[in-house]
TrEMBL record:
Keyword set, alphabetical order: Ammonia transport, Membrane, Transmembrane, Transmembrane helix, Transport
Localization terms from the record: Cell membrane; Membrane
Gene3D superfamilies: Ammonium transporter AmtB like domains
Name of the protein in question: Ammonium transporter
Membrane topology: Multi-pass membrane protein
GO CC field: plasma membrane
Residue intervals of the Ammonium transporter AmtB-like domain: 11-423
Family assignment from sequence similarity: Belongs to the ammonia transporter channel (TC 1.A.11.2) family.
Amino acid sequence: MEFSLDTGNTAWILTASALVLLMTPGLAFFYGGMVRGKSVLNMMMMSFGAMGVVSVIWVLWGYSGTFGSDIGGIIGNPLEYFGVSTITDEQSLMAAAGVPALVAVAFQATFAIITVALISGAVADRTKFGSWMVFTAVWVTLVYVPMAHMVWGGGLLGADGITSGLSTPIDFAGGTVVHINAGVAGLVLALVIGKRRGFGKEPMRPHNLPFVMLGAALLWFGWFGFNAGSEFAADGTAGRAWVNTLVATGVAMLTWLLTEKVRDGHATSLGAASGVVAGLVAITPAAAAVDTFGALGIGAVAGVLCALAVGLKYRFGYDDSLDVVGVHLVGGLVGTVLIGLFANVGDGVNGTWYPDGALNGLFYGGGVTQLATQVVVAVVAMVFSAAVTAVIAIAIKATIGLRASDEAELGGLDLAVHGEAAYETLGGGRFSGEGRTALTAAAPAARPTTEVK
């Protein structure tokens, strides 16, 4: 097929790519505000580090491993488009929409970057920065790329994969590939690395709630590129995804705040920001597959369930520092599974990008087939992500180590790892020897009487 450039669609995807890339610095603010002041720079650097590592890997072998010729239903040929220097516009993932190949490469790169960065919140305050960078490189290669290929690149979790006897799985913008994947990886990594010192015994409150609110705002802004851009064209389906992203997120914030108010007596700014992210996560896989009422339903359920789920770490004893499990894993599951109830793709209302055979959800006359399909894909994705992430995390722990030293954790990773402090009162200024000396001297006194492993 001869490629025909569509400048309107191309301009939109370039814009959407920039919006999605902005989400990772937005995540840095969101996560950075939630940690204690002594480790805020380290937390933000984990997101920025992911941007650097994944950008390089993606253009070398990541894109090719995702969208190259299928190998066993698990991964694409990583050498087919190696370096993306020989890929032609006729081979573009978005060729049907008239979008050049390199624009498609750029758009998909931003998804890989944000997925890795999301994981960092689960192991905040205690991870060696060098080990995180190694984990980033290995995980995006061995987990993200195969998962994206299985779902979007023609692999086992796609239209002709393991659910071919049921229906076509629906993951419009990454509920499985991004959020379930990152949420499971965050849980596994948190279990392997262990709890923060003092977890459950000492207060570990967010140090800068305005940062958290700013981060949530940037995430919501960028997410319109994330979801509406996944249509690959500037058309009515993109408009449906945009509107659903707005309303699902709004209602998720409201139901999170209501849950907080009933449970705790307060509707908090942290709850509002977290509700925004929960709604964004949940609507991601369903953004163009449901109508307005479906989006409202998914957002409402996500706001309540994610608000309740963030407390599970205290009940079960795993230290997911910034609630990656409660928001991204639970929110991703909510959005992915509820497609089986709310999908409305059979009447032409939401466009025609789904392959023939995609069924409406249970509430729209489609029976349980789509619901079963969504559940199967979600379970397989969780098992794959958990198994491979565990191997990677255990291998790194056994070789170069995952966890920062006790002294670095107690005194703050900013000074110990980066030689900087975010605030003058915590470190005496950038590269200040006096600040480092003072914190080092104070560390033994700050050590808990009973060590928490």
